[in-house]
What does this fold into?
Amino acid sequence: MIVQTCINGARSADFHPQLPLDPEAMARDGAACVAAGAAELHVHARGLDGRESLVPTAMNPTMLALRRACPGTLIGVSTGARIENDDEGTLAAIAGWSELPDYASVNLSEEAAPEIMQTLRQRGIGIEAGLASVADAERLVHLDHGSQVLRILIEISEQELDVALEVGDGVAAVLDRAGLRRAILLHGSDATVWPFVRRAAERNWSTRVGLEDGRQLPDGTTASGNAALTAAAVAIFRAGR
It folds into this structure.
């Protein structure tokens, strides 16, 4: 049961003045989040043009900077199809990394998910199986990859809370029926961030917060940055113990 901080995602620079977009900024921000209670970091490397990138020239310096700033902290990345917009390019990029993340999230809604998972396993990188729908959960079960993943990432994008909670419960029900007993990390986005943090705390699941998912604190004010979001989530988890 941990708090993971997702420090940037696909957000653009105008989303928040403290959004970290280069390796040095990510390293400083990551260290501040760890100091605030983050057990893990989830990052999206950027190329020189500021766009998300999985290519080694973006990933390697980002991972190296984070390793130096946050020794001993688990660091994860995304393999989302939109990043390279080319499945073969994504696979080639992963194969070319020399500074490896500890784990990578794989969206089960994406066609190339099985191939990406296999490539990650071959490189010794843990897998967060990203499930955004009941269909994603059923696909994971049918692929028989559940027992081989580090964690199940239930990530719900619906903004109407009742709908989002229903989808999340539906995903969990599929996993339960299949007897898939893996660690679960639950998170929402924007309007559902904090309700899902509380839901995770109630169920003894892990959660994540950060500027990738939203910029508001539980009281609705804009956070000063990722460390403030992290501290707020950690406080909710500690209060529930």
